[in-house]
Specification:
single chain; mainly alpha; elongated
Length: 111
């Protein structure tokens, strides 16, 4: 029973990372800063279309960064889903294999 209790902090940390990643995903996909504009103190809300937004360098740079992060996530996700990595993590981490997978995925998304 005691060794099983030692797994609780690792599993809880993995859950917290995954939950935080979900919150960041919702915030990221809201697109409010991109299309809705953030009004300055008392200023009007500025709206712009997609074509105008995609021609703005201040939007293209973060968009390219986000695409790079997406590729990082896809690469990490695909690598950890291979049988070789699954066998290695099962051998060295045992029942924490899934928690390690979720934690690595959350960390790749939090970068």
């Amino acid at each position: 029973m005691a060794p099983a209790l030692l797994l609780v902090p690792a599993a809880l940390a993995s859950f917290i990372l995954a939950f935080g990643t979900g919150v960041e995903f919702v915030r990221f996909t809201s697109l409010r800063p991109l299309l809705g504009g953030i009004p300055e103190s008392g200023g009007p809300v500025v709206r712009q279309g997609w074509m105008a937004a995609l021609q703005d360098r201040s939007i293209l740079a973060p968009l390219a960064w986000d695409l790079g992060l997406l590729l990082l996530f896809v690469g990490q996700h695909s690598l950890m889903a291979t049988e070789t990595v699954k066998a290695w993590t099962s051998r060295y981490f045992g029942v924490l294999q899934r928690s390690l997978y979720v934690a690595c995925t959350a960390l790749a998304l939090q970068v």
